[in-house]
């Protein structure tokens, strides 16, 4: 059932062979509104997530010698790939608005609690949409009679989201369910299972995230109040748990996909297979993080021969490979015979691939030298249903990390170290890491200790924990890097053109995606560009300036 199925609903009500009013409700339109925002079809999953956000986040890489592309893909503007991302996000507004129209006062399935849910989904949607492109239609979007809505400033979009979230939380109040009988969302609600108080905590945690993200941006006049009010109300915590969406392996991948659909459909070990980013693997391994084996598989290893064919840059690229192994604390041996240099890498080691290597360095990035995502991430459709990773909507870990940051910044009183520890435990729960292993990590890993140090050092550790916890949530991880500047090696970009793909960004870190081709049909597009800055990937968005 889709939103369009409500056409002629009155006629159905009077048809004895159809449904009666007591047999239908908004619950049957809720699931489809939720699913595509976090698990779109394979087409968008490939082009929006893997080509752009997951790799900008530094979690995944292309560019190994079995890949169809250098890791520069996405750093050079491509209208086709960008349009796929833009069309998905811009087009998703119709689903969000459709559900709101059904459930609002006077709607065909009028129900104030479902309407409150629609406002929270709208907030989740717009956070990703505006943080991907910047200024987008918000205040005039979907307004009757306005065919070319204006592009709102990101600051105003954030304020609008917060107003919607406050409205939703007020509507929910103390209610626990959307109704009784057919009105109870129950399992049709794939985010919160029909629990309105969990929806309320989700809304408040999203409000806190947006307030913290906006804090300190030029002209910020709302973040402090949003943060303070959010901290004074219930947030996602260890009792509520995280808001995640379990994958559906029954419906077609062209309706809802996962990483595994791309991994297996394109052929394992080549084509579109991807490796793990070195920044992520090194940070996990160097801190004995128990999530390492949950996130990734050890590299197969092998004997890798590199032949000097007279290329003036051969030795520099070979040295880069060796330096990568050194950064990974890998065990290996190097032998040279004539023009051939052989690097033997024993199996079973966790080794990440550096981000953004160029096409000329392609043959030096040997696929079996690097770790790839775990089977929980690349699970095959129809198998491993219980062990597959869930889509992260908003985690309880994020709630604790944001609270820890608020304490470090002096906005809130409390024990920042205890809050960070709680966040780490909640993040590890998502990957079935035991409490004992989490406690050991917290007690021993320097990155998990903010009991001492400068404010900047503490904020860096919190940002890195958020970034680690956002694995498989590339859009949020990318936003964390842009907002905080951490991990700093990602944010610094690249400069060595012999090794790296500088792209249209000239090596700088990507700050946004360009608008899709369809955006230019709106006459307000030119005003948005003149206000925000050039329609290029290097233009910083309001929250990141």
Portion in beta strands: 5-15%
* Cα gyration radius (Å): 24 Å
List how many beta strands DSSP finds: 11
Distance from N terminus to C terminus (CA atoms, Å) equals: 43 Å
Structural class by helix and strand composition:
mainly alpha
Low-pLDDT sequence parts: 1-17
The helix-strand sequence is: HHHEHHEEHHHEHEHHEEHEEEEHHHHHHH
This entry's quaternary arrangement is single chain
Average pLDDT, to the nearest integer? 94
Query: Going across the major beta sheet, what is the strand order?
Result: 7-9-8
Q: What features would you describe in this structure?
A:
- With about 550 residues, the protein is mostly helical.
- It has 19 helices and eleven strands.
- The strands form five sheets. It has a three-stranded antiparallel β-sheet, with no helix packed on it.
- It starts with 8 loop residues before the first helix and ends in a 13-residue tail after the last helix.
- Mean pLDDT is about 95; it is low at about 1-15.
Question: Would you spell out the secondary-structure blueprint of this structure?
Answer:
Layout: H1 9-13, H2 27-38, H3 42-56, E1 60-61, H4 79-103, H5 112-133, E2 136-137, E3 151-152, H6 154-172, H7 196-214, H8 223-231, E4 243-245, H9 259-265, E5 275-276, H10 278-286, H11 292-295, E6 296-297, E7 302-307, H12 314-327, E8 333-337, E9 340-345, E10 372-373, E11 391-394, H13 396-408, H14 416-429, H15 435-444, H16 455-469, H17 474-484, H18 488-491, H19 525-532
Antiparallel strand pairs: 1-5, 2-3, 4-11, 6-10, 7-9, 8-9
């Amino acid at each position: 059932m889709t939103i369009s199925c409500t056409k002629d609903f009155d006629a159905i009500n009077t048809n004895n062979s159809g449904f009666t009013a007591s047999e239908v409700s908004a619950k049957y339109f809720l699931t489809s509104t939720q699913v595509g925002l976090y698990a779109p079809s394979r087409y968008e999953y490939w082009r929006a997530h893997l080509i752009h956000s997951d790799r900008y986040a530094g979690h995944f890489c292309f560019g190994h010698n079995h890949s169809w592309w250098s890791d520069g893909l996405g750093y050079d503007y491509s209208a086709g790939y960008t349009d796929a991302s833009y069309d998905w996000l811009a087009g998703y507004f119709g689903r969000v608005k459709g559900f709101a129209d059904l459930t609002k006062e006077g709607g065909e399935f009028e129900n104030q609690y479902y309407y409150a849910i629609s406002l929270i989904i709208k907030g989740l949607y717009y956070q990703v949409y505006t943080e991907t492109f910047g200024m987008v239609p918000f205040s005039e979007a979907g307004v009757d009679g306005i065919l070319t809505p204006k592009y709102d400033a990101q600051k105003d979009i954030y304020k609008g989201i917060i107003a919607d979230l406050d409205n939703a939380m007020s509507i929910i109040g103390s209610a626990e369910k959307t109704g009784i009988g057919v009105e109870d969302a129950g399992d049709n609600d794939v985010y919160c299972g029909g629990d309105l108080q969990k929806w309320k905590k989700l809304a408040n945690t999203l409000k806190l995230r947006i307030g913290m993200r906006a804090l300190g941006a030029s002209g910020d006049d709302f973040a402090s109040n949003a943060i303070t009010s959010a901290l004074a109300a219930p947030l996602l915590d260890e009792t509520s748990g995280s808001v995640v969406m379990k994958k559906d392996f029954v419906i077609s991948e062209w309706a809802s996909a996962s990483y595994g659909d791309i991994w297996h459909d394109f052929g394992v070990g080549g084509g579109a297979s991807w490796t793990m980013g070195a920044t992520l693997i090194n940070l996990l391994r160097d801190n004995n993080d128990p999530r390492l084996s949950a996130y990734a598989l050890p590299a197969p290893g092998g004997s890798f021969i590199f032949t000097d064919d007279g290329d003036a840059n051969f030795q520099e690229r070979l040295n880069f490979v060796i330096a990568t192994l050194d950064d990974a604390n890998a065990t290996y041996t190097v032998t040279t015979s004539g023009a051939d240099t052989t690097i033997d890498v024993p199996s079973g080691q966790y080794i990440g691939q550096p981000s953004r290597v160029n096409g000329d360095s392609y043959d030096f990035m040997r696929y079996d030298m690097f770790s790839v995502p775990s089977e929980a991430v690349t699970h095959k459709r129809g198998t491993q249903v219980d062990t597959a990773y869930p889509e992260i909507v908003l985690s309880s870990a994020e709630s604790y990390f944001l609270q820890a940051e608020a304490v470090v910044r002096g906005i809130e009183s409390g024990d920042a170290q205890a809050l960070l520890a709680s966040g780490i435990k909640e993040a590890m729960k998502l990957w079935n890491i035991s409490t004992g292993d989490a406690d050991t990590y917290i007690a021993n890993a320097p990155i998990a200790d903010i009991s001492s140090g400068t404010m900047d050092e503490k904020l860096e550790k919190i940002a890195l924990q958020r970034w680690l916890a956002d694995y498989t949530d590339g859009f949020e991880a990318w936003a964390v890097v842009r907002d905080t500047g951490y991990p700093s090696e990602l944010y610094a970009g690249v400069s060595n053109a012999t090794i790296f793909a500088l792209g249209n960004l000239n090596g700088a870190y990507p700050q946004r995606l360009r608008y899709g081709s369809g955006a230019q049909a709106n006459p307000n597009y030119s005003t948005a560009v003149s206000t925000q800055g050039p329609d290029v990937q290097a233009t910083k968005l309001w929250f990141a300036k």
